[in-house]
Specification:
The complex is a heterodimer of chains A (about 240) and B (about 450).
Chain A (H helix, E strand, L loop, with lengths): L4 E12 L2 E13 L4 E5 L6 H8 L7 E6 L2 E2 L5 H11 E4 L11 H12 L4 H14 L15 H13 L5 E5 L7 H18 L2 E6 L2 H5 L3 E6 L2 E2 L16
Parallel strand pairs in A: 3-8, 3-9, 6-7, 7-8
Antiparallel strand pairs in A: 1-2, 1-4, 4-5, 9-10
Helix pairs in contact in A: 3-4, 3-5, 5-6
Chain B lengths: L1 H13 L1 H40 L3 E8 L9 E2 L1 H11 L3 E15 L4 E9 L7 H4 L28 E5 H7 L6 E7 L5 E12 L9 E5 H8 L5 E2 L1 E6 L5 H14 L12 H9 L5 E8 H4 L4 H36 L1 H10 L3 H37 L6 H7 L10 H18 L1 H9 L2 H8 L1
Parallel strand pairs in B: 4-8, 5-7
Antiparallel strand pairs in B: 1-10, 1-11, 2-9, 3-4, 3-6, 3-10, 5-8, 6-7
Classes of the chains: A alpha/beta (about 240), B alpha+beta (about 450).
């Protein structure tokens, strides 16, 4: 069985004025299904770039990023959009919810884009997630009316609602207080255990690293030898 | 698509200040467009009313009779037979009236007028007297009363005349006065007759400057015509829009019945007279036309109003298009992160484009609908007030002495449709730019 995420000799460069910034340098990485992985490193080390490439919202300058065996650089924009919709879930540092939609509508949004489920089926799935992230009292509230922790819970529910194979979380606790951050990580860890969803985080928070199956250190765009901080959940077939 | 509609709608509500500003501009232009369309349609309505009251029916069957190569009379001989043929070949006929025609001078107390006479048989006129709006005496006589004097139905009496307010002013006459009519007969002999004014009608623009109604007997006497003649059959249909079709049918039927039929010329009857007079033929020719032909020299007014309406609208729309484009640009800039997030989650470029276009189209639809409703209210009010047009030149152009505004549901819908489409079109470029945003760039922009 091939890894769910594979990076092979990946280089990512950005033009910055007259200078070209090399954000990732010859990165090789393979992640199995069901792993709870942290990409750890200081600011500017290339964590977000790595997650963007895995998430198919950016493509490498050279090398190949394969998601479930499909090379993202060979996909059209339409195919890449479909891949993100079907296989990936995103959790952003700044939550990135749609401000004019309420909690339920934000969570339901990817399902509506997929257009595969009936209204009733969508409702059942969204309700289950609302309950799981503990937002039953806030279902009709909009993001502006929620606390940071509540917003991130909505983002988690939105990322999970399509039952993706991979959830990418870019510094999900950076804008949260310590207790809320811990609760959010515990929630994702629990989902990883129960649903065997592959989670990939970026963080420089040691407390978050402690909760990961695997920590992949990154510095100046290069991966260093990774460590396993704890035994991971058994990999299973995911979509 | 429903979710996109929901997002678009809520974004408009959320940015209510910007929405209100752009919406007021779109609504204002729609209101203006609706009012201008109503004015143009009102003028067209006036034109139809004037034309079908003074110049023609919906379809007109008239005749030229030349006893020799140089003399010409505007008559149909053997009227009974031709009338029967017409009645049998018109589908959707409402009614037919006959008008005897003449041309001559009217001499009043203070002046003279060269006019065309329309000889009517009062008892056979089902609508003329309802169509004519009678003028107050004060409208044509200094120190006159603010009330209508006279009754046009008195045209049933011999030696009577109904004229229009501007003519009465020029002649210096009032209801009950007698004027003298001077005409030339078939042989070129001058005849005169007196006519008593039984009513004065409100002006119907340019057309009413050169026409008066007299009783049919007066024309027969003046020109020495026999009873089996008429000037023209004016055919009124249940649906005026079928005039062209009926004209074609009648032309075929009349030609097949053996009448000499003139080639169709889109000119008023009196414009053809000098042309026919120089033609080298004798006998009877029948001329079939529609009301449009009879007022073809006036259609420039309606066309002019339509062109002016769309010209003004185009200029205003061009100005507000810049505003709409700017508003959507601002929305795209403000929501770049949101676009990046939605693209990351799986929204396609096409749907991003649709989202912003929907937003613009919704803004256009709601604003232009509001403008159209306000415009409809304003038009209804102004039309009900029957505001008098002060300048005579304006009366000639507007073909009425009072402001008449009229709007059809189709015109209202087209105003809303055009403004909605233009609003959406103004948003195309910024929407395309939003759709072209790469998710990673859009998300970085947010950070």
């Amino acid at each position: 069985m091939h890894p769910i995420v594979e990076l092979e000799n990946v280089v990512k460069e950005y033009p910055l004025g007259r200078v070209t910034v090399r954000a990732l340098r010859q990165v090789n990485l393979a992640l199995d299904r069901g792993e709870f992985t942290v990409v750890a490193g200081p600011s500017g080390s290339g964590k977000t770039t790595l997650l963007n490439l895995v998430g198919g919202i950016d493509v490498p300058t050279s090398g190949e990023v394969r998601i479930d065996g499909r090379a993202t650089s060979r996909l059209s924009d339409r195919a890449l959009t479909a891949l993100r919709l079907e296989k990936l879930g995103f959790i952003f540092q700044s939550f990135n919810l749609i401000n004019v939609l309420d909690v339920v509508q934000n969570i339901e949004f990817p399902l509506l884009l997929q257009g595969e489920l009936s209204r009733r089926e969508r409702r059942v799935r969204v309700d289950a997630l609302v309950e799981r992230v503990g937002l039953q009292e806030q279902v009709r509230q909009r993001p502006g009316e929620l606390s940071g922790g509540q917003r991130q819970r909505v983002a988690i529910a939105r990322a999970l609602v399509t039952r993706p194979a991979i959830v990418l979380a870019d510094e999900p606790t950076a804008n949260l207080d310590s207790a809320t951050g811990t609760a959010i990580i515990e929630l994702m860890r629990e989902i990883n255990h129960t649903d065997h969803t592959t989670f990939i985080f970026s963080t420089h928070d040691p407390k978050v690293m402690e909760r990961a199956d695997r920590v992949v250190p990154i510095l100046d765009g290069r991966l260093e030898a990774d460590t396993h901080s704890r035994s991971r959940a058994a990999p299973v077939e995911a979509r | 698509m429903r979710i996109l509609l929901g997002i678009a709608l809520r974004n408009l509500v959320q940015s209510r200040r910007r929405t209100a500003l752009v919406g007021v501009a779109i609504g204002g232009v729609t209101l203006l467009l609706v009012c201008l369309l109503a004015l143009a349609d009102g003028v067209r309505d006036n034109l139809v009313r004037a034309a079908t009251t003074i110049s023609a029916g919906h379809v007109s069957v008239a005749g030229f009779f030349k006893p020799n190569a140089t003399n010409l009379n505007a008559i149909v001989t053997g009227r009974a037979a031709l009338r029967k043929l017409v009645e049998e070949n018109v589908d959707g006929l409402d009614y037919i009236v006959e008008r005897h025609r003449g041309w001559g001078k009217v001499v009043g107390n203070e002046g003279t007028l060269q006019v065309g006479f329309s000889g009517v048989v009062a008892e056979d006129e089902p609508a003329l007297f309802d169509t004519l709006s009678l003028a107050w005496e004060s409208e044509y006589l200094a120190g006159g009363r603010d009330e209508v004097i006279g009754d046009p139905r008195e045209l049933a009496e011999p030696g009577t005349m109904v004229l229009f307010a501007a003519q009465a002013r020029r002649l210096g006459v009032r209801v009950g006065d007698t004027v003298t009519i001077k005409t030339e007969t078939l042989s070129g002999q001058t005849n005169t007759a007196d006519a008593r004014i039984v009513a004065v009608a409100r002006d119907l623009g340019l057309l009413s400057s050169y026409a008066v109604f007299v009783d049919r007997g007066l024309i027969l006497d003046l020109y020495r015509y026999n009873e089996d003649t008429t000037g023209a059959f004016w055919i009124y249909l249940e649906d005026i829009d079928r005039a062209d079709e009926v004209m074609r049918t009648l032309r075929t039927a009349i030609a097949e019945a053996g009448y000499a039929l003139r080639e169709h010329e889109s000119d008023p009857f009196y414009f053809k007279v000098s042309r026919v007079q120089t033609e080298d033929w004798t006998g009877q020719q029948i001329d079939v036309t529609t009301w449009r032909d009879e007022v073809s020299f006036l259609t420039f007014i309606v066309t002019g109003f339509s062109v002016l309406t769309w010209l003004i609208t185009t200029i205003l729309v061009s100005v507000i298009a810049v505003g709409i484009m700017n508003a959507i640009w601002t929305a795209v800039r403000e929501r770049t992160r949101e676009v990046g997030t939605m693209r990351a989650v799986g929204l396609s470029r096409g749907r991003v484009l649709a989202l912003f276009l929907l937003e613009a189209a919704l803004l256009g639809l709601v604003s232009s609908s509001a403008g159209a409703i306000l415009g409809l209210g304003l038009i209804t009010l102004l039309d009900a007030l029957s505001i008098r047009i002060p300048a005579e030149a304006a009366q000639v152009i507007l073909l009425s002495d009072t402001l008449h505004l009229r709007i059809t549901p189709q015109a209202l819908a087209s105003a809303v449709g055009v403004l909605t489409l233009l609003t959406a079109a103004s948003a195309i470029w910024p929407s395309v730019q939003a759709a072209a945003l790469r998710p990673v760039k859009a998300l970085q922009h947010a950070e």
